[in-house]
Amino acid sequence: MPAADPLPPEPILHVDMDAFYASVHARDDPALKGVPLAVGGSGPRGVVMSASYEARAYGVRSAMPSARARRLCPDLTFVAPDFSRYKAESERVMEILFSFTPLVEQLSLDEAFLDVSGAARLFGEPAGIAARIRERVRTERDLICSVGIAPNKFLAKLASAKAKPDGICRVEKDAVRAFLDPLPVEDLWGVGEQTAAALGRLGVRTVAELRTLPGGVLQRALGPGLAGHLIDIAHGRDTRGVVVHEPAKQVSAEETFDTDLDAPAHIRRELLRLSERVARRLRSEGLAARTVTIKVRYANFSTITRSRTMAEPSDTGTRLYAAARVLYEALPPGRPRIRLLGVAATGLGLSASEQLRLDARPDPWRETSLAMDKVRRRFGPGAVAIAAIADAEPMPPNDTNEKTPVRRRRGRKT
Ligand SMILES: [Mg+2]
Predict the structure, then answer these.
(1) 345: which of 53, 76, 315, 393 is 20 to 30 A away, CA to CA?
(2) pTM of this prediction?
(3) What is the pLDDT of residues 44-73, one digit of tens each?
(4) CA 344 to ligand 1 centroid distance, Å
């Protein structure tokens, strides 16, 4: 039996998008490319939320009053923030991160920690993973990110800041002290203005000075809790693990139709479409569902839900639809027309790849679905039409003609 791979000494990555909001606008609007750009309010009380590197060259920074930014850079172009766009973009970027490891801790729309210690066998060394992440974010999203590589979270975050813009910075285990010592104490996690001022009164401005200060002096000045924390991080110690956020309890999609549906073929087709949407989101979050629920609201506004648990968890539209269709066919006949349909997946569990690994009978449609996700990520959501399989039995043909029934209003996703 081969020896287990040794754990990499620097297994934590901090991935941080460069000028995220501004870069999304610049990418999508050629007129904004290469110009000093600020996202935020341009009015007298506006604040810069994100600045392009062209704007930063003039000293424009995020959190700066817009009036001041305009004084620094008279040619500054302002655009209003568009959070739904950032959120959608963020989800695509996080999908890329999750394709390397399930241990992703998302900190905000544009940054995350990854623990890649278990990913070495599949993807190689952390530095190689960092390079591949940057390459995929660049080619698939046309955006730039920087990555810090370090033995722990606090060092990885410092490293990514150092890597910016458009770079990688690795803090090797044996070089932690050399990396930290020259930094100003303000750069340390947990050191705000007040703490920095208190340290300044002790003559401490750099991490080296902090590290060599007698512990008793620090404790008397700051109290034992904060002093202990600062001593730890001055030595580069941080034992916090990468914490994966609780997965969603339910993934669902629904649609309200401007013209109520009557024809069973249309209804089945809509259920398929909704099932595909839910399955895509399951896969993007690395989840598989055991139970499918359909929601039907009739023209008279009476609403029913029906649930069915599948033999095995799934993250494919085909399987979810098969369950949804059984539920639909079992509804009593002679009902009014349908104004709203919903499909929800619950009983979410093991990530799909885990499931696939453990599953004696892997779902044959899963590979196809993953391939379609890949094409969509690369060429946009319309690049692969779902198969018009609503009427097929028992499994879909490989047909990409999409026939669109009446569907004008998009439902809310929960
Ligand atoms: Mg960022």
Answers:
(1) 393
(2) 0.60
(3) 878 898 999 999 999 999 888 999 999 999
(4) 33
